[in-house]
Write a structure and sequence with these properties.
alpha/beta; 2 domains; binds 5'-O-[(S)-ethoxy(hydroxy)phosphoryl]adenosine
């Protein structure tokens, strides 16, 4: 390495903070630091700034109705349509500009201008209507990263039918559970997709899922992605997407007027218990918040080419591939495949070719890029990049600095954005045109967001101490409830720190179930989940869901699942399993457990390590000591074992993990 490179490396290594580049600040959407005060002094009216980014059919009368906390309502009295906001209103100025640049894994591409997207969304809206989809019917979309997914989402929004997107990597069982929970009678799915160059069937999995649905299903529509590569079964009256589109060629469907608080979509996510939670998001609050954060944090301008590499099956893709960017009229890139196919420079090839301005990805991806080496990005001209972002899990300072240097050329601000499925959009991050960046720390709460770090009693902890993150005031993008389950909504998110008897909104505190640390500048470092939820490669998985899948396997008596540290994935699934009499923990059972987890949830939940043990460490009252199992998985010094009923098993398990 030449001397100046060594010096540069050393300087980066030591630096604890970075200022936004002047060239960025000069053009930033938000560059005046008074915005923090303005929002605070003018709360909640400050949120008109978000509302102003939308076109309203009927103006709202009240920004926030907090009369029935925690069932807050935003922009009440207003009405609008999300699809009209993402499409119709851009047609005059940007009709011929690309809305979606789709890139298939095999290198095939499709460009949808705003006019193209508008046309196909209209046609598909007409097709959905013809299939009997009515306003407020939940339509399930079980689809991979094909353009027809955002098209179907916007078509649902156009006719006022909430969508429930189920990640394509989820299993048939997971699809059935979600359709049952939402009483969804309509499904749009796909024959398959490509992974690492190979066609992967999806339709049979969808069929299997439909077999588990406990009510009549009115319509099933299938997108044909694989063409002749895979002759998918269509034996139960399913309809072909392309045929429907051509039957409805040129159809125009007037966007349905939705009240601000009408549901836009449901998104299922993992929680402490085995049952996934149906997070409900509404039309005006969610859309305005996705648009506002896309504007203020991602610095999106209509003329940009912006790329979020998440999957639309997760909330990140909903808010920051589809709704936020399209509401702002920009070009959103959508990539079907994996980052290492055909080679490990695939992302950088796309950035160069499309002259991407902003890249938003996950720390787990950055850690993989680091491992692969900087020669891959070096093959490409990445100078179009203006801003970088991360989401989904904490980013370690080394990965942050690698991203800053090797992808951003020390010339792009990085936004480390903390948020959740439930929050709808970003909550804690620096503003890229204003804030000093500190690698590893997400930053201060966004303007208007009242987040704190507290102890178990709800008292704020001082700088430097770890505690729990809370959000003390509502915000427009917040979930409104859990679908059909107001009680669980309160017990999961509010009961911990609120006076649940109170009518005063000031007594209601939202608990995201994350640990956090505050520094002297008010920056928040998010430490990770404090409930039984794992974060594997930025994907949220409930330990209880995985445990119940394992216990369902023949030969398993008991199981405990914890997260163990993993260099690339962040966390990996460690399963400790007790076998039933007559079974041994051999390869056969190992394979059946892996298959059981894949069937119940999907390959993302596959255990990294399965440890067969005659006993699990338990307290005298019979509770499994997960903390100890975590320490074992992480090969850390063990915590206190004195309260155990069976301390001798610990050493035994430890030996097995180290083998
Ligand atoms: C974690 C993804 C640290 C956190 C948008 C949260 C993060 C969970 C960050 C939500 C971040 C998300 N730093 N941790 N920047 N962003 N998390 O619902 O534990 O899939 O509670 O939403 O991811 O995951 P979800």
């Amino acid at each position: 390495m030449p001397d100046d490179t060594v010096e540069l490396e050393a300087r980066l290594e030591e630096a604890e903070s970075f200022e936004p580049p002047e060239s960025f600040v000069a053009q930033a959407n938000v560059a005046d630091e008074e915005i923090y005060e303005e929002f605070e002094e003018n709360w909640p009216e400050c949120w008109e700034r978000a509302g102003d980014l939308l076109d309203w059919k009927e103006d709202y009368d009240t920004v926030l109705d907090d009369g029935n906390a925690p069932f807050y309502e935003w922009f009440t009295g207003g009405s609008l349509n999300a699809s009209a906001n993402c499409l119709d209103r851009h047609l005059d100025d940007r009709g011929d500009e690309p809305a979606i640049e789709w890139i298939g894994e095999l290198g095939d591409t499709r460009t949808y201008t705003y006019s193209d997207l508008h046309r196909e969304v209209n046609e598909f809206s007409a097709a959905l209507r013809e299939q009997g989809v009515e306003e407020d019917d939940v339509v399930t979309l079980y689809m991979p990263m094909v353009p027809e997914l955002p098209i179907a989402m916007l078509a649902c929004a156009r006719i006022g039918a909430p969508h429930s997107v189920v990640f394509a990597g989820f299993s048939a069982d997971a699809l059935a559970t979600r359709m049952n929970s939402a009483d969804s009678e309509h499904l749009v799915t796909c024959d398959g997709y490509y992974r690492r160059g190979d066609p992967l069937q999806h339709k049979e999995k969808a069929d299997e899922g439909l077999g588990g649905v406990d009510h009549d299903v009115e319509s099933v529509i299938v997108v044909n992605r694989l063409g002749d590569e895979y002759d998918h079964p269509m034996e139960n009256g399913e309809l072909d997407y392309d045929e429907l589109i051509s039957e409805h060629e040129g159809a125009e469907v007037e966007p349905v007027t939705r009240d601000a608080e009408d549901m836009l979509f449901l998104m299922y996510t993992s929680g402490t218990t085995g049952q996934p939670k149906g997070v409900k998001h509404t039309t005006a609050g969610y859309l305005s918040y996705a648009a506002w954060t896309s504007h203020a944090v991602l610095d999106i301008k209509p003329e940009d080419t912006y790329w979020c590499s998440a999957d639309i099956g997760w909330i990140t893709g909903h808010s920051y591939i589809v709704y936020g960017p399209l509401a702002l009229g920009t070009t959103s890139v959508m990539y079907e495949g994996t980052p290492d196919y055909p080679d490990k420079d695939r992302l950088w090839e796309i950035v160069e070719e499309y002259e991407v301005d902003q890249l938003y990805t996950a720390p787990t991806a950055i850690r993989a890029f680091m491992k692969w080496g900087s020669e891959y990005p070096e093959r490409h001209d990445l100078s179009s990049l203006r801003l970088l972002g991360t989401v989904g899990e904490p980013i370690n300072p080394r990965a942050w600095k690698w991203y800053y240097k090797h992808i951003g050329n020390e010339d792009c601000p990085i936004v480390d954005t903390w948020w959740q499925t439930e929050t709808g959009g970003m909550m804690v991050t620096t503003l890229p045109g204003i804030g000093t960046m500190k690698p590893g720390s997400a930053g201060p709460p966004l303007p208007g967001i009242d987040a704190k770090v507290v102890d178990t009693k709800g008292e704020e902890v001082g700088a430097g101490r770890a505690g729990y993150l809370t959000v003390n005031k509502p915000w427009p993008g917040m979930l409104r409830t859990l679908y059909n389950n107001d009680e669980r909504f309160i017990s999961e998110y509010w009961a911990e720190y609120s006076d649940t008897e109170s009518d005063d909104p000031a007594d209601w505190v939202y608990f995201p179930e994350d640990g956090a640390k505050l520094d002297e500048d008010g920056y928040i470092t998010v430490l990770g989940r404090v409930d039984d939820v794992l974060n594997v490669s930025g994907h949220r998985l409930g330990t209880m869901e995985i445990e119940s899948a394992i216990v369902g396997v023949e030969g398993v008596a008991e199981a405990a699942v914890v997260g163990g540290h993993h260099d690339v994935k962040g966390e990996a699934v460690y399963a400790y399993v007790i076998t039933e009499e007559g079974y041994d923990g051999g390869d056969d059972l190992h394979e059946r457990i892996v298959a059981g987890v894949e069937d119940a949830i999907g390959p993302i939940a596959r255990p990294e390590e399965i440890v067969f043990t005659p006993e699990l460490p338990k307290t005298r009252s019979g509770k499994i000591m997960r903390r100890l199992l975590e320490d074992i998985a992480n090969e850390e010094e063990l915590g206190d074992t004195s309260t155990l009923r069976n301390p001798e098993v610990v050493e035994d398990i430890q030996k097995k993990v180290q083998e």
